Structures are given as C-alpha cells and as structure tokens.
Amino acid sequence: MVLYPSFLIAFLFGIVVGSFLNVAILRIPQPDQSVVYPPSHCPECQTPLKWYDNIPLLSFIILRRKCRYCQCPISWQYPLIELAMGLFSLALLHSFPFPWPFIGFFLFTAALLVIIVIDFKHQLIPDIISLPGIILGFAFSFLNPSLSWSDSGLGILFGGGILFLIAYGYYFFTKRVGMGGGDIKLLAMIGAFLGYQSLPFVIFSSSLLGTVAGIWAMSKQKKGGQTVISYGPFLAAGALIYLFFEPQIQFYLRSLLLPA
Fold first, then answer.
1. Is 104 in contact with 192 (CB distance < 8 Å)?
2. Domain span at residue 242?
3. Looking at the domain assignment, is residue 109 inside a domain?
C-alpha cells in the first residue's frame, strides 16, 4: 500500500516527460529547430498552446483530437508517446531500485522511444541522442550495481564494432549501403547501458523482428530486394525487451548453451 503513491508519481512523471519527447520527435529532425524554443504550438496553424491545451493525455481527450484554434486533427502519436512513457516509468520503478538505476534506465528508455519514432518516420538516428547516450551509458555503469564499467566499455566496443563489420562486409560484397552509421552508434549506446552480455540477444531479436517487418514491407511496397526499412526501431525494441526481461533471457540462453 505504501508504494501506490510512488507508482502514481512515476506514471505522472512519465507522461509529462512523454509530452516533452513529442516535442523532441517533432523538432530534432529539423536542424533549425530548438526543442525548448519556441513554446509548444499547433504544427498546422502555429498558434501557441495554452497550458490547459497541453496537459498530457487529458487535453487530447478534452479537445476531441482537434486543435482548439484551427480544428485540424491532432496526431495519435502525442497521447501514445505520453502513455508509453508513463507505462515505461511504472515498469522501471517496479523493476529497478530508486534512484540511480531507475533514473539511468529512464533516460535510456526515453532516448530509445525518441529514436524509434524518428527513425521510423525519417530513417534517421540523430547523433545528438546516440553519441551523448554512449557517454552517459558508460558513466551510468559507475552508478549501476548490476553492471561494471568494464562490461559497459566492452558493450560500446563490441556493439559499435560488430555492426561496423557487418555494414562494411555487406557493402564490400554488394556495393550497396545496407546499414547506416546511426545503427552502429545506436548499438554502441545499447552496449554502454546494458553491457556486452546483451548484444547477442539484441542483435538476434532485432534481426528477427526486422525480417518479419521486411517481408511485410516487401509485400506492401512491391519493390522486392529494393525495399528499405529502418533497422533502428528493431534494435531499440530488442534493447527494451532485454532491459525488462534480462533474468529470463539469460536463464534460457544458459539452458540452451548448457543443456542438462
């Protein structure tokens, strides 16, 4: 019973941060835009939003998915990102001690959520997220009791190195770019936060998810082998699965490698 207020605060904090993430998702791909200025405004009519039109989740419901000023529809992305970050915040508080493990993985999760949406929309993984994320992930290893700085450092080295070799090998044999530098830096960031032990699962699960999505995209786009999909969202999804289910994943991996 004592924990209930903490979970409520965590959820409210998560949806508020989710509201900011929506701003980041909208503005980061535009080099001339700042995530802090100008204040929130309607992307269609550019009218600045009042505070009561910018309440996470509630404003979307009260306004019935329409801008108060121009009546243009409000994207479902806004409440979904807010809700997702609120639920992630709840899950993190349930799974990790407060303050540092929770804070570190909260920032990691928020970064992955932004990357998923931006890469899906623009086929871009912003360096402004992944590069500071690598440094932050390594620094976080000194405050994270479940991950040593050496495991984090090896995660950066192997994470970036493995995808670099895969990308170089693909280009060497096909003379086509199959993986961008953003994916390489993203896996290095994942390795920094989760350690090198996470990389086999993250690479395998992201490849599996990406293959399924690629087959679906090929059937829709009718482009055959020329079909292009973003790989970053699947790397991020694999990292999130590992983050919340690491004990179960490691147990099954050991069972496969060391059968009775």
1. no
2. 126-260
3. no
Task: State yes or no: pLDDT of 156 exceeds 80.
Answer: yes
**Strand partners of residue 73:** 66
The predicted pLDDT at position 2 comes to 45
What share of the chain has pLDDT > 90, as a percent?
55
Q: How confident is the model at residue 90 (pLDDT cuts 50, 70, 90)?
A: very high
Write down the pTM of the prediction: 0.88
**Who's near 11: CB < 8 A, 6+ residues apart?**
86, 87, 89, 90
For residues 260 and 256, what is the distance between their CA atoms, to the nearest angstrom?
9
Pair 52, 133 in one domain: no
Q: Is residue 115 part of a domain?
A: no
* Contacts with 53 (C-beta within 8 Å, 6 or more apart), sequence order: 59, 63, 68
- Please give the angle made by the CA atoms of 31, 35 and 40, to the nearest 5 degrees: 120
The one-letter code for the residue type at 136 is L
Residues 37 and 161 placed together within one structural domain of the fold: no
For 66, the 3-state DSSP assignment is strand
Do 135 and 248 lie in one domain? The reply is yes
- Count of domains observed in the chain: 2
* 108 assigned to some structural domain: no
**Rounded-to-integer distance, Cα 260 and Cα 258, Å:** 6
Residues 138 and 238 in one domain: yes
